[in-house]
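We both want to read discrete structure tokens more fluently, so let's practise on a single case. Would you supply a protein for us yourself, any chain you care to pick? Would you write everything just below, so we can both look at the same thing?
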Amino acid sequence: MDLDEVLKVLKARGLNLTPQRQEILRALLEGPPHQTAAEILQRVRRRFPSVSFDTVYRNLHLLQSLNLVSRTHFADGDTRYELCAGPEHHHHALCLGCGKAVDAAFCPMPYFRGLPDEEFTVTGHSFKLFGYCGNCRRGRGE
């Protein structure tokens, strides 16, 4: 998904396309994947020095509620955000050593189809693997 596509979605939903909101989206698109709100704020402040953390945080939550941004809690305690590439979601393998995140190539949810619908209705899910990346494994002598 590129900036124009995201802006069309926002406009179609009647949301203002403020310069700050556009810059937050640009930071998500052009920055590294899996950024914290503070990292996004730093990028946005390059162009809008007076933008507040609250503005970034509120916009991230708005974009998340519209399924345009996903939020992941990492093993280091930080919450990171990324622009959704489309209607499909993805999961992560997280390194406990350096904090690196690797996008999983599939969703394991189909393996949990044994839950009876009348007993439990799934409305969402999150799946994370924790371990050590190749560099951290070598550093640990494994």
Notes: Helices lie at 3-12, 19-30, 37-45, 53-65, 134-139. Residues 1-87 form a domain with the Arc Repressor Mutant, subunit A fold (CATH 1.10.10.10). The two ends are 39 Å apart (CA to CA). Residues 53-65 form the longest helix (13 residues).
